[in-house]
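Researcher: Structure for this, please.
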Amino acid sequence: MHVRCLTLLALILGAVTLPAAAASAATVSVRTWTDAAGAVWTETTTVETGAEARDGADRLVRAAAEAALRGIARFGPFVVIDATHAALIDATDATSPARFAAMVRAYPALRVLEMIDCPGTVDDTANLRLGRMIHARAMATDVPPGGSVRSGAVDLFLAGRYRHAAPDADFGVHAWADDDGRGPADFAPDAPVNRAYLEYYRAMGMAPDTAAAFYALTNSVPNAAVRWLHPADLARFVTLN
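Model: Predicted structure, C-alpha cell format:
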C-alpha cells in the first residue's frame, strides 16, 4: 500500500519551507470562517515542534482537531453541506470511493467539493480511484479562504473539472512511501507504480510533459518533509478558475 498522508505535527518538524522552532514548543491557533455556502467552520490547531512531534513516514497532514461543520449528512471523510455542496474534512482510505459513491447516490445534485482542511490519504490506490470518480462526475473542487490541501488530497483537488482556490490557500506536496518505506526513486521511472501517477495526472487534463513535471515536483522532497505551494504554483500545471 502507498500512503500519502502527513500529520500536521510531523509536517511542522519536517517542513522544508518553515523556520526551525525551539525544541518541545507548542503553538495553539484557532480560526473561524464562513464558506460560500454559508457553512461556519472552526479549526483549532496545536503544533508540537520538538523531537516527539514526528510520528513516522506517512502521507497525512492533519490538524490536531477536526474542523467543526454544520452539515446534513456524513459519509466517511465527506460531509454534505447542502444539496449541491459537500466537503472533504478528513483523510481518505480504502473505503472512501464507496463512501463517495453512496454520497452521490443519496445526493445526486452535488456539484461542488469544498476542501477546507484536507490532510491526505492512507491508501493512494483508493485515492486515485476516488479522484477519477470526482472527475467523471464533473464536480468542481474549491479551497476557500484559509483552506489547506495537503499530500494525497492535492490529487483530489486536481480532479475537479472546475478548480478554484482562494489566494491564501496552501497546498503541501511530497513523495509517497509504501509500507516498506520505499518511494518513487526506488522504482524505475516506467515502473507501474510510477506510471499510475503519470496516467492519473494526464487523465486530469495535463499534457504528458506537464504531468511528468508535476510528478517530479511532488517527488522533489522526501515523504517525511513537505513543499508548500500557492495557487499560482499550481496554475503552472492546471487551469484554476
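Researcher: Any notable elements?
Model: The chain has one domain: 2-234. The radius of gyration is 17 Å.
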